Amino acid sequence: MSNAAVEIQHAWKRYTGHVAVRDLSLTVPRGSVYGLLGPNGAGKTTTIRMLLNIIAPDEGTIRIFGEPHSKPGITNRIGYLPEERGLYRKMQVRRVLRFLAQLKGMAKADADRGVDQWLERLGLRTSDKDWGAAKVDELSRGMQQKVQFISTLIHDPDLVILDEPFSGLDPINAQALKDIVIELRQRGKSVIFSTHLMDNAERLCDSVCIIARGEKVLDGAVAEVKARQGDRHVAVVLSNGTPVGVPEILRDRALVARCDDSNRMLEIELAPRASAQDLLARLIAAGAAIERFELVRPSLHRIFLDRVGATGVEEGMSGHG
Amino acid sequence: MDKLWVITAREYLERVRTRWFLFSTVFGPVFFAALMILPAIVARRTKASEEVSRIVVLDATGHRLGHRIADGLSVGMIGDTARTRVQEMTPDQLAPAESLATREIVRGELTGYLVLDSAALDGRRVRYAGRNASAEADMDMIRRVVRESVMQTRLEMAGVGPDRSAALVRTQLEFELERITDRGRGGSARVSIAFALIIVVILYMALMLYGQAVLRGVMEEKQTRVAEVVVSSVEPWKLLAGKVIGVGAVGLTQFAVWIGSAILLLRYRAPILEKLGGSAMSFTPPDVTIGMGLVLLLFFVAGYVFYSALFAAVGAMVSSEQEAQQALMPIILLLVSSFVFFQPILSKPTSGLAQTLSWLPFSAPIVMPLRMAVIPVAGWEVAVALISVAAGSYIAVWIAARIYRTGMLMYGKRPTMRELARWLRTT
Lengths: 321, 427
Fold this sequence. Notes:
The structure holds two protein chains of two kinds.
Chain A: E1 4-15, E2 18-29, E3 33-37, H1 44-51, E4 59-64, E5 67-68, E6 78-81, H2 93-103, H3 108-121, H4 141-153, E7 159-163, H5 171-186, E8 190-195, H6 198-204, E9 207-212, E10 215-221, H7 222-228, E11 233-238, H8 245-250, E12 256-261, E13 265-270, H9 276-285, E14 290-296, H10 300-308
Parallel strand pairs in A: 3-8, 3-9, 6-7, 7-8
Antiparallel strand pairs in A: 1-2, 1-4, 4-5, 9-10, 11-13, 11-14, 12-13
Helix pairs in contact in A: 2-3
Chain B: H1 2-16, H2 19-45, E1 55-59, H3 65-74, E2 85-88, H4 94-107, E3 112-116, H5 118-121, E4 127-130, H6 136-157, H7 162-169, E5 180-181, E6 184-185, H8 189-223, H9 226-231, H10 236-267, H11 269-275, H12 290-317, H13 321-340, H14 342-347, H15 352-357, H16 364-374, H17 379-407, H18 417-425
Parallel strand pairs in B: 1-2, 1-3
Antiparallel strand pairs in B: 3-4, 5-6
Helix pairs in contact in B: 1-10, 2-10, 3-6, 6-7, 8-10, 8-12, 8-13, 8-16, 12-13, 12-16, 12-17, 17-18
């Protein structure tokens, strides 16, 4: 039995005028939370659709739990939350959920039981109000999102695929979703989610794969990916603002290769032959009051910007979650 | 198979549960009942009113013609001969009597007056004046009674005995119409044309309405993005097939209710009409055999699959209602084309046009049943038409499945013909 939840080998997907996915290979370890990171239009959704056998790759093989992804019945073990969410608006919530559960091979009675448990767990069914009996379009947006989570998880899938799960979620639902992901992980389920929000990915993922323009840029366990980038990063916080001499130091390319100024904190990548010691000495000499000076692993955000580069970055990508 | 069933069941149940379904299913029989009962009621209305007997007959013939007419007017109406006043007089007295009667009519004491003089006995002319002079049914009745009475009086004057003359005059003539076509006698002409029209309208409406229901269903799934969730669980063709079968089953359910209630209404027509005070007119229901019914069903099913597949393909292609309207045009034209030729086909069901249209897959589902309703069509022709529609449906489904699979996940711009062709080629 394969130890991977998902194995993609040399997958290609071409459309007229552009290649959506170019020779992509990746492995999602079983029981891990895996982040598929990349700017908008990088090919994340195409990759996920190929995984789910919604669209066929032009080349390459995809295996899920060691089996070809087109094998009948394999979809019953997968839960999918698409980026663009939707439910039958005129249908009763309970009937929609039962329908989607039955499509995952659940018996009607099991589906009904599961629906009630989930509705209670997410607060859609209380002693005074049962939203399960309401029509979908009578629900608020937040409640519809919860219903959509339920539809993804109702059949207790072994592999959960979430495409941009945090987009459009209010903070409460975002937290609920994070809790769900953690719980799935603890129960040994595999979770794949795509996102362009690096902070979320950094906090949640065991492993990541960064793709841009349809190609893999790097992949691996988060700790490993960060280690590979070396520890030439320094996080600096100054307590007295920015004294006059400091900008000049930061512009010194012999010392500082790159500086990411987040106002309160500076994330500095040292130039190849510079030492953190020199930097500290120069900052102090310029009159900076050091509140924090720490050698750090680069953040995923930083790595992402370094590797993908500004050209691969579209609007909306650089936001922190 | 299991999941196909789940999808079909959802399509069917969600539609049957709507108020619209309930309304249209119940409305069908109500409409049919109205169609059946109203003519009987209207027929009753076209009978003469009681007003016809509330007249004065100014009789200057001297042959008691006026009394005979008065009796005739009362018979069958209310049986009250006293209502019709008869004044016998000389021709000189006619003019003042007329002006007197006119004043009475103006005051509303009378409805009208009838003038009988020697011209009446000659069989040339009588005069009637009254408030109801333009009421067709009243005038018909007066005309008939006067004509019969004059004829009877003239027969008696010519020496025929009263009983014999009465028998001679009262002839009830039923006028039966029968149609002879190129192939011989075609049964009651009006019934078969009406039947053909009903079949054509129902088939046309059904294909249009249920086809559009499929279209809207596909568009809804695409617009709300439910399709993406569903096709991550089942193959797209199952979603398409489940929708087509489910909507088709809704249509058949509706038909079953309609046809069932129509049969019941026809069977209990006479008692129902009696309760309502009308009388059952002679009406021969069209002679529909089980075989004919089965063939109709087959044509409906095949035609429905053909058109709904095309409607579904359009639904998968477009992203908005407006785009759908444009992309629908070719399909609507195909469907309308079989309806447009209704008149020429009906008047010449054996013509080359009629024959060709009844064989082409897009028009056969309507034109062949139309021809079959008015003339006997050879069995092999029906078979050819059915095979043609079945083949057309197969191709339509094949095309639709391909467009559907790709189109359902494509948002934004409508595909060009070139792109469509590529969707069809990809496996």
